[in-house]
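Kindly review this record before class:
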Amino acid sequence: MSTRLSNCRTRRLMTAGLVALLGVSHQALAHNPMCECKEIEGAQIRCTGGFSDGSGAPGVTLDVIGYDETILVPGKLGADSTLTFKKPDAEFYVLFDAGPGHIVEIDQADIEAP
């Protein structure tokens, strides 16, 4: 009888672990970070951030960083998940940072011109 109870507990723990693992996998797949930047009129750039499940990213950090690793424009996405800034004179990239595993880098060469 104790073997039967032990096997039952083992199965329950394995099932609970599998369910937890699947839940984590589903969450990880559902929230891939996305960021797009486009040059707009007036030598400005507008970046829009969000996640692959369609949710926005208001308040998420979006910094403009020079190739020498200095932060040229520190920022956070607004309520509409966008940030507009003046195009820097120095070479740069955009860093969308929603936390570990949720980072997108966009090099200036990959920003669409108007």
Remarks:
- The helical segments are 2-30.
- Residues 1-28 have pLDDT under 50 and may be disordered.
- The CA atoms of residues 54 and 88 lie 30 Å apart.
- The radius of gyration is 21 Å.
